[in-house]
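For homework, think about our next protein:
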Amino acid sequence: MRVFPRTAAEIIELPGVGRYTAAAVASIAFGEPTAVVDGNVKRVIDRVAARKASAGKAMVEAAYWKIAGDLLDRRRPGDFNQAMMELGATVCLPAQPLCHACPVSLLCASRGPTAKAERQTRKKAVIHYCLYRKNGSVLLQQRAEQNSLMPGMWELPRHEPLGDDQRPLLRLRHSITTTDYTVFVHEGERQAGEGRWVSLRTVHRLPLTGLARKIIASLGDA
């Protein structure tokens, strides 16, 4: 009988689960003493520890996780993590923090609005996919477990760019972190490479990438 994993290290191995989700589930559901870091927690740390430079440069991700781990109440990690997230969401607000209502205001090294971090320049990229269809099914491929982004999730097969005379079946835009993608989907005439045929009626049961879901949802217009 399969048992749901109980530690963050085990939960993060599940397809589509990242560090934040794994830590939240492990600490809140199973009491593992592991810290959680999201945008709200980062803002609390920025102000309590005064770790933002005057130029607005943010700490590296690893520093947030270390400080959150140092602050963690290891006896009640789930309650502590939820309190940190709630504090950032309802009291330690970005533009108008409610310092007068903050339960840790005496420990805070800085008051008032947080300096805005420098915005990263967004990158532009183009991706080509190939759509193979037969008998109400589509061909999908699984991303390698070694991938740093969306390991183990399913997507359409990648495709080499075609000539200008080859019109795509679909063209859409998609954004991930700091990159804006222009996505071209071409109709496949024959199967290329390995993959798995999945019925369109059950395809959403798989852990699909967000882009794969968007493409499949657009098929009705193709």
